[in-house]
Amino acid sequence: MLKIFKKLLISFSLIVLLTNSVLAEKKDHNFTVTPVTKNVYSIIAPSYGLPSPENKGWNSNSHFVVTDKGVLVFDSGSSELIAKNIKQAIKTVTDKPVRWVVNSHSHADHWLGNAEFSDSGAEIIASASAKIIMKQDGPGAIDFFSRITKGATGSTRIRHPTWLLTQSEKRNIDGVDVEFIFANDAHSPGDILMWLPKQKIIFGGDVLNSDWMPIIIDHGNVDNLINTLQAVAGLNPTIVLPGHGVPTTVNSVIRDADLLSVVWDRVKEGYKAGKNKEEILTQISTTLEQKYKHLYKNFDEAIKQQVHEMYNKQKV
Ligand SMILES: [Zn+2]
Predict the structure, then answer these.
(1) Could you list which residues have their CB under 5 Å from ion ligand 1?
(2) Ligand 1 centre distance from Cα of residue 11 (Å)
(3) Could you say which of 47, 56, 72, 112 is the most buried, measured as most Cβ atoms within 10 Å of its Cβ?
(4) Whose CA is closest to 169, among 191, 194, 190, 188?
């Protein structure tokens, strides 16, 4: 009985914490650390789109777990300069060194900060297939980010992951049970999620979302994205930490899986029936608007992007 009560109390505290602090929309550009639960923290970026002069290149979240001997960082930001700020922010809660950095996937806003951490001895963890894309896209991404931020991202040296994962696996990292979950190229080739089974917290990279709609990209796999979302929902996480946007709950994962299933089916049906992209988009938007528009910040542009990408996938 006492156990159940304790469990309820913990869940309740988590919900209160999420409601009061983490879920509040972040407006400032300070690298503030938000406690998620004991030893788990988030550094939430104030903006979601691409790096820009306004956000000074800071467009993606980093999260971290404090272990006995060190810190594990999940996603290192879009440049060394961003990573320096992340490192400073971590120092406000612990003096322990960052010993591990997980890169959720190969998109450059999630890993170009690696050098700042590997310089001081951190091991970089990612999937082997993400590393292949990082090698291809890294140098171009540095130039691109520098251009679109008007130089705000500063100079960045590339550091690739050295601890390479080839399948989902369970680990105990310095006393913390961690599970790396392969999303099977759901959002991009080689993306991984990180699950803390004891705390019931999932770190989603760009596979999981809160107030933004799932991003469908040409090199992502929609069926696997839907399957991964359903599998994550099955884990029943208490807290969901996305790569962009505020932390959220399992309800967002279920919402995204349902939405994507409907859009994907309608696009396939429409394509088979010989309809063009715009006809399919109009039909889908009109049908889904009432149920979903208020749940996302970017419904109008994102539904267009989703339908277009899904339609293009029919032609392959
Ligand atoms: Zn991404």
Answers:
(1) 107, 206
(2) 30
(3) 112
(4) 194
What would the mean pLDDT of 134-161 be, rounded to a whole number?
Answer: 94
Domain contains 285: no
Indicate whether 187 pLDDT > 90.
Answer: yes
Residue 180, domain extent: 2-249
Q: Check pLDDT > 90 for residue 3.
A: no
Query: What's residue 139's pLDDT?
Result: 95
Q: What is the mean pLDDT of the segment spanning 116-143?
A: 97
Q: Containing H/E element for 82? A: helix 80-91
What's this model's pTM, rounded to 2 decimal places? 0.89
CA atoms of 255 and 252, how far apart (whole Å): 5
CATH (domain of 133): 3.60.15.10
Q: How far apart are CA 175 and CA 179, in angstroms?
A: 13
**Cα–ligand 1 centroid distance for 188 (angstroms):** 7
The answer to the question of residue 7 being in a domain is yes
How many domains, in total, are found in the chain?
Answer: 1
| pLDDT band, residue 58 (cuts 50/70/90) | very high
Within a domain: 22: yes
